[in-house]
Please model this.
Amino acid sequence: MTTMRLRGGGFCWIASYPKSGNTWMRLALAGLLAGGARHDFARPLAFAPFAADRAEVERALDLESSDFTMAECADLRALAAVELAREAEATLYRRVHEAWEYTPSGRALFPPEATLASLYMVRDPRDVAVSYAHHTGIPVDAAILALGDPANTWAIRPGGIGAAFPQHLSTWSGHVESWLAATPTPLVLRYEDMRDDPAGCLAQVAAHLRIAASDAVITATVAATRFDVLRQGEAERGFFNGQVAGQAFFRRGVAGAWRDELTRDQVARIERDHGAVMSRMGYL
Model:
């Protein structure tokens, strides 16, 4: 059963495995909160920054994190989340790509006591593999390996300190299962259902987060976040969100594109690695 703490401040985690609709959801949620307004592509998308942002943790705890180990930094993140939630007077929306898990010392990385709610976006891993490859500039075969790698971690910088803490993704299957078992229970939304019924999905989001969004606001938000609108905005003004240089962020935005972009062998490998969870989520 989904639970939500009734207080002014705390976190809403907008979570997904990379390339599963997280940015689309952030744009839509920002629109709901702004009365259905479109994103201004002349400005970066500032809504729901990374939960793994190093500077925010350092400010919250008044320390320098570069001297800590990766395991210690995970604990720092959990401690900072509790402190920030305690001080917040409004919901803190944050983007999450890592798995829901415990730190080496046993703390929840996303502490339930700091959490108001969570949204979890999930997408067919066959489409994820294609989009992941384009986003990162790696071959599709390498992307398939990444989706099946339990150690897959983003933002690892050997010999250096990045702006974000390392983010452990796990496998695609492990990622999905971790968030399905998260506390409190997230609202789970399939990318494919957002494509088919965006108004119905956004109504669920508004209800889950207790956002007073009228039918008119939901309709306006759907119109503002249609894929052709987002793609046109990027074409006119640009939109950088971590993709490799020269690659569009809003590429195809369709469900089932894997059918004309993957070989039979590639499809078989993905289904072999993730068949159980794919079936659970309605993809097989």
